[in-house]
Amino acid sequence: MVKIRMKAMGRLHRPFFRICVMDAKTPRDGRVIEELGHYDPLVRDAEAREVLNKERAAYWLSCGAQPTEKVAVILKRHGVSNPAAKKA
Question: By residue range, what is the domain housing residue 71?
Fold first, then answer.
């Protein structure tokens, strides 16, 4: 299974994450299939905080990639809908 999740970068007290497409069994900082953008939680400007390639994210979702909870929130903020979203 392929997942869209965050890869931790940055350093101590300065978090930074890349939004990546990875195999579900790959370690958090392991091999990446494709990088879709990044998330910098310490930036004050909302537009600069999250950068995302919407077209590629929509492509991977259509291929069946499952986003993590935090990535799903970011995708929703950018207007990318998940066609296989589970309804509870």
Answer: 2-77
List CB contacts of 36: < 8 A, sequence separation 6 or more.
4, 19, 20, 21, 52, 53, 56, 57, 60
For the full predicted model, state whether its pTM sits above 0.90.
Answer: no
Asked if the structure places residue 27 within a domain, the reply is yes
Token match 């909302």: residue? 46
pLDDT at 84: 61
Question: Residues 57, 49, 74, 79: what is their CA dihedral angle, to the nearest 10 degrees?
Answer: -70
Sheet containing strand 50-52, edge to edge, reads 50-52, 34-39, 17-23, 2-8, 66-67
DSSP-derived letter for residue 11 is B
> What CATH number is given to the structural domain containing 57?
3.30.1320.10
